[in-house]
Design a protein that fits this description.
This protein has about 450 residues and is mainly alpha-helical. It has one domain: MFS general substrate transporter like domains (Growth Hormone, Chain: A, Up-down Bundle). Helices cover about 80% and strands about 0% of the residues. It contains 23 helices and no strands. Helix 3 packs antiparallel against helix 4 and helix 5 runs antiparallel to helix 6. It holds the Pfam family MFS_1. Keywords: Cell membrane, Membrane, Transmembrane, Transmembrane helix, Transport.
């Protein structure tokens, strides 16, 4: 083992042994609050766009495209995914060279500014073709931010955890996606109720974007209270940091990036049926279900998602990450056809059952992800590896999942046609789970040095 690797155990042993002093426990609680709050706000910004795009942006920014306006609006939600790898590369370099905390601050700030500007953007009726161009540019900035946010938050959480608790500690930034969805639904629902549908569709849709400014200020304050990762601090003190993290990552662990990405494509593709706006757009347009009712069902599904995210993380600490992935993706594969049949019926009860049952395997396969990714890469290039794997998985699994679902529904005349596409994605992740090495019980000094 080389000098760069031998420097890691000192900090990691401190994390893994015995009951932590009161100061460390207090810091862990701060990490929980900071990663959960910041990631929730980040994803609130990201998902408000997806929901409003599904409902309104086709008419407001792409009305000249006729029947393709809705499909194009959903595509703008997906184009941001192609900027996630760039965000992951930049944040990975910053996080592995200068610390995990700086990534959290920069990504949250970038997301907040770009989201606020969407709320101020004139529509096509006011400034013509410049409106959709600027909209897409702002969505790309959101993609840059999202590409870096997850890795910084997830690795900070996991690197503060004790051995045997990495899954649970890493579950908190994972909860930010469904919790951000719930926050987006509450805010959108509140403004919709206060203003009425006509006013909300005309100008009130801007308010959820502008409200982001308040949330970002709160999130930045919470994150400013968090100490740097002890693992990174030890790397810095021992001068064991990677000089060129991306080059080292691709030359020594490139296949692990692809493997990690493959474990999440099934989750991302299916998850974006809920958070990407497809379910909301489909059932409110094809079956005329009231928008408020569908938002409440999505809210309930997000709550179930949160609960099973923690269950999946806890279970992975007890039985290993691969066991949970195998069970979760098997469950998702089996349930997809009946779930989309229920959606096709268009009843409130059927839609509710479909969304709630979909959230269970989504949570199980999302909860262990932070810990799994941390355990796959050495500490010196961990943030680069985890961020890039997450970004690649997001592109392959979720970039155009809502648009593909919309195209399949239109092409085959039924929403059931979406199920086989998602089943293929779930199968890819399920097969990958059989090739994972479980390191959930290993201490931090040995969990990723191979």
């Amino acid at each position: 083992m080389g000098a760069n690797q031998t420097a890691e155990p000192k900090a990691s042993v401190a994390l893994a042994t015995g009951p932590a002093p009161g100061g460390e426990e207090k810091q862990r609680r701060r990490v929980v609050y900071a990663t959960l709050a910041g990631t929730t706000i980040e994803w609130y910004d990201f998902l408000v766009y997806a929901q409003v795009a599904a409902l309104l942006f086709g008419d407001l920014f792409f009305s000249g495209l006729g029947q393709w306006s809705q499909l194009t609006a959903l595509a703008t939600a997906g184009v941001s995914f192609f900027f996630r790898p760039l965000g992951a590369i930049v944040s990975g370099y910053l996080g592995d060279r200068f610390g995990r905390r700086i990534v959290l601050v920069l990504t949250l700030g970038l997301m907040g500014v770009s989201t606020m500007l969407v709320g101020l953007l004139p529509t096509t009726a006011a400034i013509g073709i410049a409106a959709p161009i600027l909209l897409i540019l702002l969505r790309c900035l959101q993609g840059l931010s999202a590409g870096g946010e997850w890795g910084g938050a997830a690795m900070l959480a996991v690197e503060h955890a004790r051995t045997g608790h990495r899954g649970r500690m890493g579950a908190f930034p994972q909860m930010g996606v469904p919790l951000g969805m719930m926050l987006a639904i509450v805010v959108m629902g509140a403004f919709n109720a206060l203003l009425g549908k006509e006013a909300f569709d005309a100008w009130g849709w801007r308010l959820p974007f502008l409200f982001s400014v308040v949330l970002v200020v709160v999130g930045q304050y919470v994150r400013s209270q968090v100490a740097e990762s002890p693992v990174f601090t030890e790397l810095e003190e021992s001068k064991a940091k990677a000089k060129t993290p991306l080059r080292e990552l691709l030359s020594t662990h490139g296949t692990k990036v692809l493997k990690a990405a493959a474990t999440m494509v099934g989750n991302i593709a299916a998850g974006y049926m809920i958070v990407g706006g497809f379910a909301l757009a489909y059932v409110t347009s094809a079956h005329d279900l009231p928008r408020a009712q569908v938002l409440m069902l999505l809210f309930a599904a997000s709550a179930v998602w949160i609960a099973f995210t923690y269950v999946g993380a806890w279970w992975s600490d007890r039985s290993g990450r691969p066991v949970v992935y195998k069970f979760g993706y098997s469950m998702l594969f089996v349930l997809l056809l009946p779930q989309f049949w229920l959606l096709s019926q268009g009843t409130g009860l059927g839609v509710g059952v479909a969304l709630l049952t979909l959230a269970v395997p989504l949570g199980l396969t999302y909860g262990p992800q932070s810990a799994l990714f941390a355990e796959m890469f050495p500490a010196r290039i961990r943030l680069s590896g985890a961020s890039l794997a997450y970004a690649v998985g997001a592109v392959l699994g979720g970039a155009f999942a809502p648009m593909i679902a919309e195209a399949l529904t239109q092409g085959f005349g039924t929403v059931i046609a979406v199920a086989p596409y998602l089943m293929v994605m779930a199968l890819i992740s399920l097969v990958t789970a059989f090739f994972l090495t479980d390191r959930s019980a290993e201490p931090q000094e040995s969990m990723a040095d191979r």
